[in-house]
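Thread: Newbie trying to understand structure tokens

Hi all, I'm a second-year student working on a class project, and my supervisor (Dr. K.) asked me to get a predicted structure for one chain before our next meeting. I've only ever worked with sequences, so writing a 3D structure as a token string is new to me. If someone could post the tokens and maybe explain what I'm looking at, I'd be very grateful. Here's the chain:
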Amino acid sequence: MTLDEPRRPDPDALLAEAKKAGRGRLKVFLGMSPGVGKTYEMLAQAARRKAAGGDVLVGVVETHGRKDTEALTAGLEILPRKPIEHRGRMLLEFDIDAALARKPELLLVDEFAHSNAPGSRHPKRWQDVMELVAAGVSVWTTLNIQHLESLVDVVWKITGVRQRETVPDSVLSGADEIEIVDITPAELRQRLAEGKVYVPETARLASENFFKPENLTALRELALRRAAQAVDDELTLAMRRAGVAGPWAAGERILVLVGGDAMADHLVRTGRRLAEMMNAPWTVAHVERTGRAPPSAMALSRINDAMKLAEQLGGATLVLTADDIVAAVTDYCQRNNVTQLVIGKSRDSRWRELLGRSFASAMMREARGVALHVVTERSSEPAGEGLRRRVAREPGAWRSYLPGVGYIVVATGIAWYLDRTFRASDLGMIFLAAVFTAAVLQGLRPALLAAGLAFLVYNYLFLEPRYSFVIGSPTDILTLFVFLDVALVTGFLAGRVRDQQQATQRRAAAITALLAASRRLSASAKKLDAASALAEQLSAATGGKAMILLPHGDGEIAPAAAAPQMTPLATQDMAAARWAWEHGEAAGAGTGTLPVAGWTFWPLQGIAKRVGVAALEAARPQGDGEAERYVLSLLDQGAIAIERAELAAEASEADALRRSERLRTALLNSISHDLRTPLAGVLGAATTLLEYGPSLERPVQQDLLESVRDEAERLNRYVGNLLDMTKLEGGGVAPRTQSTDLRDVVSAAAERVSRRLGQRHLVRDYPPTLSTVPADPALLEQALVNILENAIAYSADGSRIEAAVYEDERNVVISVEDEGRGIPTAQLQQVFEKFQRLEESSDRGAGAGTGLGLAIAKGFVEAMGGRIAAASPIHQGRGTRVLISLPKEKATPHWLL
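---
Reply by user tm_fold:
Sure, no problem. This is what the structure looks like when written as tokens:
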């Protein structure tokens, strides 16, 4: 852009501003710790707003017995708190429903990070605040910097206190205004000593622990940095909205790798802080190793918790699948332009570094153009303690190694017997077979344990000197270590193949199940069928109950399908379901909204809109990341299937309305023209006879009377066609079949149209003998009359019309041919539809009409079990042939006669 060009606002900035339309404003009073005066400042500003005529409501304020703070609440309207019973105690909590009903201009909600009592709508107060803001209520709240989620581990290192009540960084970043309430650490400690923060005894203990000068200084720095970052973000957004050019971020992208160890949450928070400093998008990824045994339940739980924490902090999540983790990560970084990579390095991996197998070392060698951030383990526990702690927390893990030990015991028994029975037996092969068996049946780690045991047992029992670990011969030393190497390699390779096979089988089973579910969902043509299929698939995947709730005409959702059976939902369950439907977020058990519900409710988000809510029983198994991803995939496919069925139904309804509108328009056009024409003829002839009758000659009078008769008959035919079509549309045509000779029907129809032939010639062609058909003679005659009238209308004077009857092996066929100009190929398939006709007939007065004749003929013939078809051209590019085929009457067996 040149200097002369007008400055254009950034579209993303305008879009972000547009999204805030209809929402309230959120202001956060941020401080370094308790006692700095956040609540006091919030109340002071609220009092000034109230004095200026503003509508201010105190939702909840914690004064902690501070008299000067309590004095500021005087004159402000205070919302009564909601009593909630918990374990025999009555707790008073913020009443979000009353606040929504009152909907003030400004609402004060103290302690943003507060945890609500069990039974509240949301576990955290910040979730209440965000719901209020989304509903259009402006909120002021207070927050200490140590409660910010990404700073939990940093604050722990500074103060030694781990915060349990936290607020996601993304929530604070979304605040419209952040006001820092700051005093010096010395002033805060002075306030603490004067009893303005806590009671004297509590204040003394606090000053010796949390409120140390060095702690307060570090917390103050964190708070000021966060406020400065907020100011910078606000300035950048304002400049972009105004189209002011500036040195924007250079497109940094951050990738955080997490595993199943205890560092996962620490890595996520580190990545969040790095993303905040660089103002860059960030992704948390886990790499599933295809050639390794599946992670333990504890590792899976840590991975899932890290992924949920990343989403809560505003990051994206990703799962990669590969055998070579280094190659997979470097490839992803190159393809996705990742510039910053965050990885962890535990103390238990030092021996890997010594062997050159450290992941951090490998990434430093292979990464190109990526800044590598290596986060070390924050714990001060000695090396190896993490492994011992994991074993202690998983008491059943050692059982998987017992079969490997058992195989070595069996191999020892066999070797002992062979050693006593035969001489010069190659006993090492027996132990190798045991190691191989452990690898194939139990996996890699039990196989390595079996190899180590085999090494010790073989040396102790079968190498001289026996019953000692001393090796007497240099040859035996070589033999023993070759045996150990072969055992380890055999166990490693066989175990790895076994683990790869199991991983492949699990993934193949998951893909097969997802494909089968996709086919089942895709085959559902109706919305209820798709909902039932989704409920069945979810129930099978989770092993529990599943239910699908769909919206009705009034916008409310209600259970529509369930598996294995429909279960009534309690009041709190329906409240969680409505929340998921209205807000597009998961609610119920295991979520941050109405966790007391007995079900977990997931919104079904289609491509264009939200189509329903899926409910999963709360008691379903948790912690399996692969199963959870499968369930989420089912929810996505189910939502699309329901949306597709709904769109198909809407399209069908729209098509029916379009057809109805087209028919209505055609009918109105027909009535306005085709019915008025004969009426005009009758009116004109009758008026002439009335005014000039005595003076008219006899032939003229006769001609006028015949004109009245012809036009009246024409009008009668039009009305008859409309009535016949009404019967066909309403299903009111019930043929009275009887044994019918089609020659008689053709003759009767020919007589009815004889007066309308004019100069045309109608030729009949009948065989001397003809089989009868089961048909309704009256309906068939009317159908044939309509076909003949159509032939007359589009044939010139002097042309030939032929009505023939013949039979083949199974059917009797009526053929009507004319020598008209024929039917264009493009219109041949539509000639039997309602209100279809060519642009101009050769004689509008002879028989052209509403375009219902052939449609009625088709309806009558098909009602009698016959078929009708048209062909054109039939001779030298002209003419039309209409065929009616009716099945022959079945012969009665002679023994029934």
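A couple of things are worth pointing out once you decode it. The first strand starts at residue 26 and ends at 31. The first helix runs from residue 11 to 19. Feel free to ask follow-ups in this thread.
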